[in-house]
Structure formats: C-alpha cells, structure tokens
Design a protein that fits this description.
five-stranded mixed sheet, single chain, alpha+beta, Nuclear Transport Factor 2, Chain: A, 4 helices, about 30% strand
C-alpha cells in the first residue's frame, strides 16, 4: 500500500509539473500572439510609428530586402509607405505561434496615391496576400521574414502588365 501511495504521489507531482509548464508555455504563446496583434493595431491600423520602440527589439533584424535594417529603417520605410498609400490597411486573418515564433496571414490593401520606391503614383488600388513571420525576444519583435504577393501588387497598380 505504501508503494502504491508513493507511486501515485510521484505521478501526480510529475503531472502537475508537466501541466504547469504547458500552462506557462501556452501563456507565452498567447502573449506573443497578442504582441503581434497589438503591434498591427497600433503601428499599421493607427499608423503610430512613434510607438515602434514599445513593440520592436532594439536589435531588430529585417529580412525583407526592400526594408532597411533596424528600427530607424523600418520607421522610414513605413513613413514613406503610409505617405504613398494613405488608405493602406491590413486585415489579419490568422495568427499562429510556436516557441519564439509568430506567423501572421492577412491582406494588405490600399491605393497608391504617391511615389514609392521610385514608382510614380498610379492612383490604382490593390489587395494582396502576405505572410509575416516574427521571432520574439524579450517580449518584443526581434526578427522578421515575409512572403508577399509583390507580383500581384505590381500588376494591380499597373507597374507590370
């Protein structure tokens, strides 16, 4: 009977440790997803580039070749983008998190009303799909990769036929 009691106690202890870790991991995943959702709402929906430091790690690494490195590069790129596409919007469809990585799938839409990357204003609207992948470090966005339908963008705004 003592052996059975010790075995049950050991199993319950192991179970509580395991579920405790899982709960903590699930909380971290939810926090990471919420960080990305809040970043999108503040920076992209409200176009509040002054709040980047609240969401982005000081050593932010960018893997999109069009966007310069670091916070300053990100800020300048999107300031230019928001000027060229003042009605720009992002519709978030899905966020998935695993470990320190968060994936977001959504749609970028807008009308190119100003010059951007040497492309004169076309006054044409577009709507394109995008996948953004972020690595989270110290509770902030530390690294970014994306897959964007650039062909669709250029076709819709008339840069290519």
């Amino acid at each position: 009977m003592k052996l059975l009691r010790k075995t049950i106690t050991a199993l319950l202890s192991a179970f509580s440790i395991t579920t405790g870790d899982n709960a903590m991991d699930q909380n971290t995943l939810q926090e990471n997803k919420q960080l990305l959702a809040n970043f999108g709402a503040e920076v992209f929906d409200k176009k509040e580039l002054s709040s980047l430091h609240s969401y982005m790690h000081e050593g932010y690494i960018q893997h999109n070749p069009l966007v310069p490195q670091g916070l300053a590069g990100f800020k300048q790129f999107f300031a230019d983008w928001f000027n060229a596409v003042p009605d720009w919007s992002y519709s978030l469809t899905k966020i998935v998190a695993e470990g320190d990585t968060v994936w977001a799938y959504g749609t970028y839409s807008g009308t190119q009303q100003g010059d951007w990357l040497g492309i004169p204003a076309t006054n044409k609207s577009y709507s394109i799909a995008a996948v953004d992948i972020f690595r989270i470090q110290d509770g902030k966005l530390a690294e970014h990769w994306d897959v964007i339908d650039v062909y669709g963008l250029f076709k819709q705004i008339g840069v290519i036929k």
